[in-house]
Amino acid sequence: MEKGDVASRIAALTKELNDHNYKYYVLAQPSISDFDFDQKLAELAALEKAHPELLDPDSPTQKVGGDITKQFKTVRHKWPMLSLSNTYNEKELKDFDERIRKVLGDDFEYVCELKFDGLSISLTYEQGALTKGVTRGDGTQGDEVTTNIKTIKSVPNRLKSGTYPDLFEIRGEVFMHRAAFERLNKERVENGDIPYANPRNFAAGTIKLQDSSEVAKRPLDCFLYFLYMDDRDRLFKTHWDSLQAVKSWGFHVCEHTTLCSTLPEVLAFISYWENARHKLSYDIDGIVIKVNNYAQQHELGFTAKSPRWAISYKYKAEEAETILQSVSYQVGRTGAVTPVANLQPVQLSGTTVKRATLHNANEIARLDLHELDTVLVEKGGEIIPKIVGVNKDKRVPEPVQIAYPTECPVCNTPLIRKEGEAVHYCPNELGCPPQIVGKIQHFISRKAMDIAGMGNETVEVLYKKGLLTQVGDLYHLHRHQSELEQIERFGERSIQNMLQGIEKSKEQPFQKVLFGLGIRYVGETIAKKLANSFKNIDNLIQASTEDIAAVEEIGERIAQSVKEYLSNPLHLQQISVLKNEQLQFAIVEEELQLTSSKLADKSFVISGVFEHYSREELSKLIVENGGKLLSGISAKLNYLVAGDKMGPSKLAKAQKLNIAIISEDELIKMIQ
Ligand code: IVH
């Protein structure tokens, strides 16, 4: 293809795919199959790869993210991001309506909107391009998270051509659909990461991630609900009109937003959504009621915290009474025992609830639970319902108190409870079936050793047959071909696939192996940090708790858990078996190209937030110029590169040891 043809093909594909994204994510009316979309996207990506000079920053291929952003910059809001006062019943809403009527008389309208349960965000568009995305923060200033916002498919990076103003700010709510939340949270549990309690926390945690390619993997959505710009009120007379315009510029405005002229209409809207909200694919926690006309909004004005022209009506978390039939105790792969309440099935928030979490023994004691108690179950934003109380009037005669077991419900080993921890553990790591099976299942999982051809059920079957009792046994399975062949429904092909998958897993990098070991609190991200900081398992085994805690983002609790794990002779023996099988226990470092040796024999610690470079970039510069990075401040250290928001204790320690404290600019000067 001629270059001119390539350019026009890229432009045509970009426009077409952006249109499809709009139809899919904003209008929810796709007009192309996913397959065709992916084909076109692949074609565009290939053309862009061959002609990087033609890459348009607004290309739909850029919606997949990939940049590591710096620590977020703090940005002041041009218009403060206020909150709303809340009402919880009809009376409070009537009072609000009367206050408004006193000022405006009867000639006004309300706009009723759903109150999305996510996190609010402010987006700035200049000449139709998204230039800034800022979190609410404290209402006056927030974090700039533009790169992350750009991964949200329903937020246009560039507006469709039209009559949008040159500069405006638009506010809305970033949230995660329940289905995505449940799927991703399940994955987190499988990976040993701590699950998020509800979609709102998941969305908030995601928007604050440093790595936007990770953000892109977690589908977020965004509804826009408020427009700000200098001469807005000349252009639009009402909030409703602005929402219609905003919709036509390509933004996702919720289709349930409704104009109401009287309070009874508002109340009808509220009561309709009280039930209907359970059928939405996302969580709402109430309704927002806004006076429609801008001039009237100005007349009403603001209090210090919130506008007088808007209010929220919050739904109560739904509760239901049911009977506690029994409590069962589940043993996880780490040995943690979790009590679960089995309930007489009851309808709650549109679903049938049969089980509720009880967290730990303290919770059971706090509720003073007895067998066959009538309990009050609540389903708030959390996916798993919880027991919030007991109706003691309905307690059966001679009630039997729920007694927390002293022994593991599976292997009968006495349970232990560490000081300061609420959770009971079964310490029989090597003999307790759910722990053994769970650990192996974790080890083979996609984000760990990624053993294709082997699933959770296979692990269970092989465990029952005595072929698998610890992860090291996986690598001896090939010696048991005939036993494998005797297993029902385990054909020759599946056996070969599994054995090949196991062999191939030996290529998994160190961080995956480390994650696969299933050390308590060591999720994927922490495993990666440990691997990069300590380079190999021997360094990590020799490191002290303090050395481990000196790694960025690794706290005392994680450090202690790692140290404890690697001090246990049983674990060390398991590691040595895996090492003999040639698994990767060291990172493969890229050949380092030194740009200079200006920093030779000098050691550095980087701490804080910097204006021009990210910490990763500064580390790279130091190493490329022959310098050495240390993990903590000690007398051996030559320079502390200090940015903003650095911990005062680090600074004090460096000062005490007389270590040179330099800025990022001073570091750059040293290598120029
Ligand atoms: S309007 C001054 N509209 O609720 C206007 N807020 O307590 C304030 N929220 O921080 C915002 N859905 O995060 C507005 N349809 C909606 C909303 C909404 C959810 C959140 C928003 C805000 C909080 C107010």
Describe the structure.
This protein is an alpha+beta fold and 672 residues long. Among the domains are: 3-62, Helix Hairpins, CATH 1.10.287.610; 108-291, DNA ligase/mRNA capping enzyme (D-amino Acid Aminotransferase, Chain A, domain 1, 2-Layer Sandwich); 433-580, DNA polymerase, domain 1, CATH 1.10.150; 603-671, BRCT domain (Rossmann fold, 3-Layer(aba) Sandwich), CATH 3.40.50. Helix content is 37%, strand content 19%. It contains 25 helices and 22 strands. The strands form five sheets. Strands 12, 13, 14, 15, 16, 17 and 18 form a seven-stranded antiparallel beta sheet that branches. Helix 1 (3-26) packs antiparallel against helix 2 (34-50) and helix 17 (510-516) crosses helix 18 (524-534). The longest helix is centred in the N-terminal third of the chain and has 24 residues, at 3-26. It is globular and about 85 Å long. Residues 64-70 have low confidence and may be disordered.
Secondary structure elements and pairings:
Blueprint: H1 3-26, H2 34-50, E1 74-76, E2 86-87, H3 90-104, E3 110-116, E4 119-126, E5 129-135, E6 141-143, H4 146-149, E7 167-175, H5 178-190, H6 199-207, H7 212-216, E8 221-228, H8 232-235, H9 239-248, E9 258-260, H10 263-276, E10 284-291, H11 294-300, E11 310-314, E12 318-331, E13 336-348, E14 351-357, H12 361-367, E15 374-379, E16 386-390, E17 416-417, E18 424-425, H13 433-444, H14 456-464, H15 481-485, H16 492-504, H17 510-516, H18 524-534, H19 537-542, H20 545-549, H21 556-567, H22 569-580, E19 603-607, H23 615-624, E20 628-629, E21 639-642, H24 648-656, E22 660-662, H25 664-671
Parallel strand pairs: 2-11, 19-20, 19-21, 21-22
Antiparallel strand pairs: 1-6, 3-9, 3-10, 4-5, 4-7, 7-8, 10-11, 12-13, 12-15, 13-14, 13-18, 15-16, 17-18
Helix pairs in contact: 1-2, 13-14, 17-18
The protein binds 2-(butylsulfanyl)adenosine.
